[in-house]
Amino acid sequence: MSAAAIAAANEAFYTAFRAGDLETITALWAERAPVVCIHPGWDALIDRADIIESWRAILANGGTDIRCVRPRILTTGDHALVVCEEHLPQGVLVATNGFVREGGVWRLSFHQASPLQQRFESEDADDPGVVMH
């Protein structure tokens, strides 16, 4: 397990999202593992081709001003979750990004974001990157 590698994969996702870089987002999604993507207000997408097409539609007008804030990394074996806030000009979402190790590389297998109505503070609230195993 490498928290740094997981954090880098997560940051690559948000960098590509900001830049409107569909090629990088496509490369980040797992090819062999099951995949799921649930955009805010959308139905669950469970087919890789449908997921990539959804990102094509989202990024059709370019990137967006999005920042991943307060990421928390949870790992077990070849699976990891990054739970964070997505800060956008129009509001804050809570997101979970699931990663699986394919060929030694951390790739997205799950993404879900939904509006954040209320934040529940924990003793780790000020820690920008708590890593749990």
Description:
- By secondary structure, this protein is α/β, with parallel strands linked by helices.
- It has a single domain, classed as Roll (Nuclear Transport Factor 2, Chain: A).
- Helix content is 26%, strand content 36%.
- The protein is built from 3 helices and 6 strands; from the N terminus they run ααβαβββββ.
- A hairpin with a 2-residue loop joins strand 3 and strand 4.
- Helix 1 runs antiparallel to helix 2.
- The mean pLDDT is 91.
Low-confidence stretches: none
Main sheet: strand order:
1-5-4-3-2-6
| Annotation field: number of helices | 3
Number of β-strand runs:
6
User: What top-tier CATH class fits best?
Assistant: Alpha Beta
Question: What count of structural domains?
Answer: 1
In terms of quaternary structure, the protein is single chain
In CATH, the topology is named: Nuclear Transport Factor 2, Chain: A
Question: What are the salient characteristics of this protein?
Answer:
six-stranded mixed β-sheet; Nuclear Transport Factor 2, Chain: A; globular; 26% helix; alpha/beta; 133 residues
What topology emerges from the helices and strands here?
Elements: H1 3-19, H2 22-28, E1 36-38, H3 48-58, E2 67-76, E3 79-88, E4 91-102, E5 105-115, E6 131-132
Parallel strand pairs: 1-5, 2-6
Antiparallel strand pairs: 2-3, 3-4, 4-5
Helix pairs in contact: 1-2
